[in-house]
């Protein structure tokens, strides 16, 4: 399957994404209450258990009336029999000439032929009201079921539940939904170069950007992740991955996937029985990316080995980790590419590139401008960047060209 | 200040936003660790405590060389004196004709004149290497400070810290930042019409969409909010608001702000000493919106009284609650309007409207299409909606018109 072994050379970004799509299988389902379902993905279509509105209700504060003929002429009077507030039973049955005071959302009493908003009603003594304007039949009534029929499909399989969807499900009385189980994610940061203290910086160490980046990204996406720091040593890495592969759905590693003498992630994973799906993508940043999977009795564990350079990790999160997670949640793995208008010329490169851009919409057009400091060990342009542009190989690109990219998140 | 009292009629959306901008003062500051700072807003500019890179380092796996002249011709040999891995001290000083094995990120030893990537190096016995290609001076070296100078401004006041910004701060060794204190938010849902059980639906009650909507929205935005459900009774509401106004920075109410006989929010707030900033905005949905503030010894408490209709609540969250929160966090309160191309004609309306749209970017153009079921008691189109279009009054709008709106979140 999925090109394991066959691909020794570099594959393209599209090939890598296609291999992810072929390889990743959705996780199982679990029931959650709708109030706990923010950003979760639906396993099934959801049908409305009730109609919306549930009953016919007033659209305004005013009076429900019963008239024999419509339109009712201004000046006509009605006898007020009572009051219906929102949330109360409308236990009166109106006869012609009768009215009840009613408020927005109040249940329309039986016998009602129309509703007069309070602005066209004059209240007299003895509970009598007079219309100050003509009134059509069935005015300002929200009919039961006019928005949604009971049984109608509200939301569909694969949909991510945002704030609006949660509210709409609750309004229809949906209390539980089946969602894809959340992936259990292990993040393994390799590398001896990470400083714990400022004092170590002069000894060739650097501050770790990858761990906080991955932590923040998991937090942002409400992902369940455990973090592990491991030295660049074969035995330590072997022990760790051996343990993780039966306990996690996805292992993300950073560093140690290139061809340096201390790049142990790939050989260790292969020794542990992981099947390679691909290794090395013809892209910049992030060429030595490694993707593999291991099927054990307990679970299928996917391993996405990212390079150690932080910009490569950042790009991989946006493009590849997101894709794998969408696949695990039963969605199309395809990144949400949108087309954008390049604001300047771009020099060609032999590899496809992901460039960090500043994007803004002007006059309805998505315009993108490349930021400086694009090298794979540089992150400082992320203070300004909100878009990742995908730049094809070997072409001189001029200002005005349409290219695909994704919004960063 | 801020038009309290002067505005008895309906004000425009722009006037309402301008009054919010004039009224809302930023909260105080608090220090947080960068790893806890996701989505928090910077109070001050942040300067880089160190240069990036911190020291000159190799950009590749290969060999650091010392040569007398450059370019070095292919065929020249060097004596390998040792090895520098990333994270290790480079304690050797190279003399002409010497080399060290070096890995990506490894600290460049003193005396180095260039770096040869391993692809152009042949290793002989006796720790001798031969170049298989010509090599320029200072190749594949990342110079100290080439990305960021120590002391340089990295991030600016008012910036929201996303995943990329967190990572970039960590890479520069920034461990703590000052952010605006998070608003303490109380959400008060009024209304007797909310059903606790399905059985109550036939008694004129409805399912509550506002509470789960507000909860999900606060969760999504990592906001600290407490929720209160109160009956449509003046005394109950008075007691609750009296208690809340000294404990919270922002009270959001839903329902009870219109002119119905049971709309107690505004009179109760005014009785408790809240000063009205505005009441009623010429918009659809959400006309009877109320904004007030109360300055006590403990704090300034803002009260945003939203209508009870769930679509009005949803729109107000996106437009007005967001604006107030941005103001409390020292940012410009202005919504992130972007211009979009309307895909069809639109009929005029006497009020400015917020329409729930489906937006997509095609050929670099943001195209928006209105969804059905736009009435203020309807939410079912939120399964498809990702954009809120702001439609001006009294104008026939034709397909192709550019209008402002905001992405929903």
Written overview of the protein:
- Chain A is α+β, with helices and mostly antiparallel strands and 409 residues long.
- Chain A folds into four domains: 164 residues, Molybdenum Cofactor Biosythetic Enzyme, Chain A, CATH 3.40.980.10; 53 residues, Alpha-Beta Complex (Molybdopterin biosynthesis moea protein, domain 2), CATH 3.90.105.10; 86 residues, Molybdopterin biosynthesis moeA protein, domain 3; 70 residues, Beta-clip, CATH 2.40.340.
- Chain A is built from six helices and 24 strands.
- In chain A, the strands form six sheets. Chain A has a six-stranded mixed beta sheet, with no helix packed on it. A six-stranded mixed beta sheet of chain A has the order 14-13-15-19-18-16, sandwiched between helices.
- In chain A, helix 3 packs parallel to helix 6.
- The longest helix of chain A is centred in the last third of the chain and has 19 residues.
- The radius of gyration of chain A is 31 Å and the shape is elongated.
- In chain A, 50% of the residues are buried.
- The N terminus of chain A is likely disordered.
- Chains A and B meet through helix 2, helix 3, helix 6, strand 20 and strand 21 of A and helix 2, helix 3, helix 6, strand 20 and strand 21 of B.
């Amino acid at each position: 399957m999925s090109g394991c072994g066959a691909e020794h050379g570099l594959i393209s970004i599209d090939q890598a994404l296609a291999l992810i799509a072929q390889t990743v299988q959705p996780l199982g389902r679990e029931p959650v209450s709708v109030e706990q379902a923010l950003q979760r993905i639906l396993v099934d279509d959801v049908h409305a258990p009730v109609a919306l509105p549930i009953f016919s209700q007033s659209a305004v504060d005013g009076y429900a009336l019963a008239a024999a003929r419509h339109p009712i002429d201004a000046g006509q009077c009605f006898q007020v029999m009572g009051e219906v507030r929102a949330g109360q039973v409308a236990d009166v049955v109106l006869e012609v000439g009768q009215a009840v005071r009613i408020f927005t959302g109040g249940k329309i009493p039986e016998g009602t032929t129309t509703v007069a908003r309070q602005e066209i009603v004059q209240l007299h003594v003895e509970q009598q009201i007079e219309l100050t304007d003509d009134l059509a039949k069935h005015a300002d009534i929200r009919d039961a079921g006019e928005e949604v029929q009971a049984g109608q499909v509200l939301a569909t399989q694969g949909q991510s539940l945002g704030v609006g969807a949660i509210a709409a499900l609750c309004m229809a009385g949906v209390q539980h939904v089946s969602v894809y189980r959340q992936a259990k994610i292990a993040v393994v940061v390799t590398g001896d170069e990470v400083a714990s203290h400022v004092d170590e910086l002069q000894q060739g160490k650097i501050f770790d950007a990858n761990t906080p980046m991955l932590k923040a990204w998991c937090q942002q996406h409400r992902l369940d992740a455990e973090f592990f720091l491991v030295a660049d040593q074969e035995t330590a890495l072997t022990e760790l991955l051996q343990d993780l592969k039966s306990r996690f759905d996805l292992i993300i590693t950073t560093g140690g996937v290139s061809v340096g003498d201390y790049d142990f992630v790939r050989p260790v994973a292969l020794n542990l029985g992981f099947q390679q799906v691909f290794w090395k993508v013809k892209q910049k940043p992030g060429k030595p990316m490694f993707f593999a999977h291991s099927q054990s009795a307990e679970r299928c564990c996917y391993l996405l080995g990212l390079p150690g350079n932080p910009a490569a990790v950042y790009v991989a999160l946006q493009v590849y980790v997101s894709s794998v997670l969408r696949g695990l949640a039963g969605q199309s793995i395809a990144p949400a590419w949108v087309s954008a208008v390049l604001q300047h010329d771009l020099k060609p490169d032999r590899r496809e590139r992901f460039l960090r851009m500043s994007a803004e919409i002007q006059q309805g057009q998505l315009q993108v401008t490349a930021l400086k400091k694009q090298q794979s060990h540089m992150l400082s342009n992320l203070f300004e960047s909100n878009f990742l542009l995908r730049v094809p190989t070997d072409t001189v690109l001029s200002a005005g060209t349409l290219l695909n990219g994704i919004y960063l998140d």
